[in-house]
Amino acid sequence: MNAHMSPEEFRRHGRQVVDWIADYMAGIESHPVRSRVGPGEIRDALPAEPPEHGEPFEAVLADLNTILLPGLTHWQHPSFFGYYPSNASGPAILGDLLSSGLGVQGMLWITSPACTELETVVVDWLASLLGLPAHFRTDARGGGVIQDSASSACLVALLAALHRASGGRVARTGIADRYTIYVSSQTHSSLEKAARVAGLGAQGIRVVDVDDRTLAMDPVRLRELIAADRAAGAVPAMVCATVGTTSTAAVDPVPAIGEVCREHGVWLHVDAAYAGVAAVCPEFRRLNDGVAEYADTYSTNPHKWLLTNFDCTVLWTADRAPLLDALSILPEYLRNPASSSGSVVDYRDWQIPLGRRFRALKLWSVIRWYGAEGLRAHIRKGVSLAQDLAARIAADPAFEVHEPHPLGLVCFRPRWPGLSPAAADAATLRLMETLNAGGSLYLTHTTISGRVVLRMAVGSPATEHRHVEQAWDDIRREHQALPIQRVTDQTDQTD
Ligand SMILES: *Cc1c(COP(=O)(O)O)cnc(C)c1O
């Protein structure tokens, strides 16, 4: 039987683990980017029942190498271009390790004052790095909080919005079916999930039209929908504007949307999960247009593109009162003089769960390691590699690029002359599958105006010019080699 791991044993195994991670980072390019295992393969390789007797820690590392590694998709691979990046970095990993080492549960200020106060400092720091308004800071009426994900952030925003719109009635009665929220076809699915969780149901969701070309929400249509709902006796509770949509990084016109929200007293949540962090660079501060004037809540994910390991979403509010009113519940066993005095922040009141990890450590570690200049350099590198790629694709007559692409995401597709739209879409997907199966890169797809396009999201800290060049070479080569291409070349038609 193993006794508890002693500090000396921990030191020894901890060194093995840190070495393992450093070797993994150094050798990451030797792995195929996307895992090649089939469903159930990993599970079948693992024992169905847990061990009766403790095992040496080395056995865990051995199985990690032989069983789990083949079942991993390497999100930190420099040729991972799928979805959006999910950045990891040395300082973030070490900050997270320290958080685990401390094992602090930071639900209340009193359960670890430094856990709360460091979080207050880093979210205020980040507000300042991103050029967010002073009223989002904790010493003003607002404040920020670290959430596990953007999905949680939008649920919290919705609960605060419902609280304000209903004068607290939703919290008392649990009935939210008179309330409506406004999203676009491009809004992240987490808003629909939040509406379900909050009791609005599918009937409470209004999908506002987007501009055909930019895919940005149409504020004129938004105004019409809100007016129609009010006339019909519904209560518009929240609009979600997106800065950098998940599909194409489209940016909704926040100032115009905010104007509509103000007219009708509707809560404005701005979801900038991916793109928001780019505002560390002055040249991307325009991403914040309208936020200072109109946003009630705003969130962005350092765990996507700002070098902080998942999970780390920061949610700010312009006025914390409705948020705290909506979410504070004080059972006797949590009562303490510090909380009662009102002089401390208890972040459990800013989120759904009670318990919380010491996530501020990893964000603090990242901001201190890189400094503002290092964070700017990281964003600029991703943008510049993506812009080079977009220029290469645009220069190739066999492909077309979706415009605009101001950040790290490029959406494009082969033209497939001679193929019907449906056949062309199938061919694009087949090209993607061939590329991903090859293991040298990983990209994903979306649809724009009903047509399949490929997405290449550049933004991993390990990605260099050569990886993007190699990816583009691979794409062109596989495009040429795809049997469909040879058939259509002979038909000599154009689309
Ligand atoms: C990725 C993304 C989300 C979801 O982020 P999670 O933190 O994974 O919940 C929400 N909104 C947008 C715009 C996104 O791009």
What does it look like?
This protein is an alpha/beta fold and 495 residues long. It has three domains: 1-30 and 35-70, dopa decarboxylase, N-terminal domain, CATH 1.20.1340.10; 104-357, Aspartate Aminotransferase, domain 2; 377-494, Alpha-Beta Complex (Aspartate Aminotransferase, domain 1), CATH 3.90.1150.10. The protein is 45% helix and 12% strand. It has helices spanning 7-26, 41-45, 57-68, 90-102, 113-129, 150-166, 169-173, 190-197, 219-231, 254-264, 291-294, 302-305, 320-327, 337-341, 360-394, 421-438, 465-481, 483-491, and strands at 143-147, 179-184, 205-208, 235-242, 267-271, 297-300, 313-317, 399-401, 409-414, 444-448, 451-457. The strands form two sheets. The chain has a seven-stranded mixed beta sheet, with helices on both faces. The chain has a four-stranded antiparallel beta sheet with strand order 8-9-11-10. β2, α8 (190-197) and β3 (205-208) form a beta-alpha-beta unit. α4 (90-102) packs antiparallel against α15 (360-394). The model is unreliable at 491-495 (pLDDT under 50). Pyridoxal-5'-phosphate (PLP) binds at residues 84, 149-151, 188, 190, 242, 245-246, 271, 273-274, 301, 313. Pyridoxal-5'-phosphate binds at residues 84, 149-151, 188, 190, 242, 245-246, 271, 273-274, 301, 313. One of its GO terms (molecular function) is transaminase activity. InterPro entries: Aromatic_deC, PyrdxlP-dep_de-COase, PyrdxlP-dep_Trfase, PyrdxlP-dep_Trfase_major, PyrdxlP-dep_Trfase_small.
